[in-house]
Amino acid sequence: MNRHVRALAALALLLCAGCAPTRFYERERLAHRCMQMDVDGRVVYIRNKMEAAREGAFGGFGGAAAGSCGCQ
Amino acid sequence: MRRVAALFAALWPTLATAAPNESHVGLDLYYFGQRDPGVDGVTVGGVQPRGGNPYRGEGFNYASGSLDMRFAVNDDVAIIGTGAVGWIMDDGVHPVPDTVENAEVTSASPDLVTLDAVAGVDLRVGDWKVVPSFFYHHQKAWFTGGPNLELSRTLFDGNTVLFTNSSLRATLLRQRGYDGVKRGDGWQVALNLLFGWTQIWSPSWLTTVSAQYTRQSGRLHNVWNYVVLYDDLGVPVRLVDENLPGVRHRGQVNLRARYSPWLAWSFGLDGSAYADSWGIYHGSIEPNVELPLFADIQLRAWYRVSAQHGTRYEAPTPTELVGYYTQDSDLGTFVTHSPGLLLAIPLVTDARPGWEARISAFGLYRTDRIFAAGGHAGVVTRW
Q1: Would the pLDDT of B6 be above 50?
Q2: Measured between beta carbons, which residues in chain B are less than 8 angstroms from residue A41?
Q3: Distance (Å) from the C-alpha of residue B97 to the closest C-alpha of chain A?
Q4: Which of A34, B48, B97, B123 is a Cys-bridge partner for B266, taking CB atoms 3.0 to 4.6 Å apart?
Q5: Interface touch A22/B286, C-beta < 8 Å
Q6: DSSP label at residue B244
């Protein structure tokens, strides 16, 4: 148990080591469209149509997921 | 509606700012084909099993066109609307054995047009984004529609962003069954609550973690997900409506990461896992990459793998109707592979309105032998 706690603490320290504030003028790469989580709403629509119904992929990786058309 | 907004406002104070309002019109054309060839050499009751219900072929072709619009009235109000016309063509008729007496057809969509529409308003109310809307879906023997409300708010901004995104939807269901008999109208209510944390770790990488709760209630069974009832000799004798609980609770966690070593390049990893009160466990992982090609054209490619453990209510060959039972293939056990790619092609970028074309291709393969392929092409203008 202690080993797990120490490993988690080490991981947190490692992550925080790179956690210097990013200034607005340093955000050129972050602001580019390639960093968007879902790049295109219409692609999300058609993927949901293919992959989701009432089951698993429903809602993808964190979008609103409150029902579907249920089309057959 | 106001009570819900007031409740959220009281629970989660905020430091958020509204995003600039933009207008757009997008036209997209879609096509995909799905096949359900069954398992070679295996029969149940004399019929080759398909994915899920052995008597329901999941194969079809789907073509559609959609128009997506957003008109910004001012900085705080935009009118949104989507209209889509689709054409579903079943992949051949799957015969029902003569021993089944009460079935006329086994699909809601033998060959017909579907209509979808959404109309609503996107509002900035204080620090909240509030989107009330109505949706509508119509095809032969099948109608759904109702109100939908989405609420979202950025709670804390900067290198650490906390946000919430919630929705509430009521759906009226009107269906005619496989036996030609109209079912009574039913309602379904779905509540979705999501809380997320986005962290900018450096000028080149960020992560988002979110937790999600979904509660569905009302008529959760689907007339077209019928169950085949067998006699003691294994002969199929009747089709009956599936029977599922009137409430479904679901908890989900999502993790998304993006790393950009160079401008316009990104490497991403998305993952999610959920469990629900029907006994379904599901996990997904999706690595993706985006890179520039030429003339500012961007290519994004992804490969999603998900594994699902099916519901405890699955009944492959029931001989009596006891408790809850379903043969819906989407609630079953399977692994899905789904690769895809998208080309975003800027046409006009240095003037207003801007124009962009989009072309995508998708694939899907499930280990229960359902597979699909498709794509879309579209153009959008923004101002």
Answers
A1: no
A2: 68
A3: 22
A4: A34
A5: no
A6: -
Cα B237 to the center of its chain, rounded Å: 34
How far does B86 lie from chain A, in Å, by closest CA? 11
pLDDT tens-digit readout, B239-284: 888 899 999 999 999 999 999 999 999 999 999 999 999 999 999 9
Q: What is the pLDDT of residues B35-68, one digit of tens each?
A: 877 666 556 556 555 665 667 777 888 899 999 9
The tally of domains found in chain B comes to 1
B222 part of a folded domain: yes
Closest-CA distance of chain A to residue B310, Å: 9
| Residue B206: other Cβ atoms inside 10 A | 24
Please list, in sequence order, all residues whose beta carbon lies within 8 angstroms of the beta carbon of residue B205, skipping any fewer than 6 positions away.
B257, B258, B259, B260
d(CA B105, CA B76): 49
CB B37 within 8 A of CB B72: no
The Cα–Cα gap between B361 and B303 comes to: 12
Element (H, E) at A10: helix A2-17
Q: What is the DSSP string of B146-172?
A: EEEEEEEEEEE-SSEEEEEEEEEEEEE
- Supply the CATH number for residue B280's domain: 2.40.160
In sequence order, the 6+-apart residues with CB closer than 8 A to the CB of A36 are: none
Q: Is residue B159 part of a domain?
A: yes
Give the residue from B259, B344, B252 showing the smallest Cα distance to B293: B344
Q: Say if the Cβ atoms of B203 and A39 lie within 8 Å.
A: no
Q: Residue B123: how many CA atoms within 13 Å on its side-chain side? A: 12
SS (H, E, C) B251-304: EEEEEEEEECCCCCCEEEEEEEEEEECCCCEEEEEEEEEEEECCCCCEEEEEEE
Q: CB neighbours (10 Å) of residue A42?
A: 20
- Token readout for A3 is 């080993």
Neighboring chain B residues of A71 at a CB cutoff of 8 Å:
88, 109, 114, 137, 139, 142
Flag whether the ipTM exceeds 0.85.
no
